[in-house]
User: What shape does this take?
Amino acid sequence: MQATITTAAAGLSQALKRFEDSAIRTAQAPLDNLAEETVERLQARTAVAANVAVLRTAQDMSRALLDIKV
Assistant: This one.
């Protein structure tokens, strides 16, 4: 379970970094590769959502396991 949380947290951090880097590139040169940067941010947003879903599921599973043990 801990490995899942660690992996999801790392994925979340990477996705947020991708989003931020894309936003910075767009701010520096707004008309250069706008379509590519938009796609990059959409992919990063999807990766954030996926990793958050993994974290929530891991949390729910941990709660369920604790409920069974108690």
Remarks:
- Residues 15 and 33 are 20 Å apart (CA to CA).
- The helical segments are 2-28, 34-69.
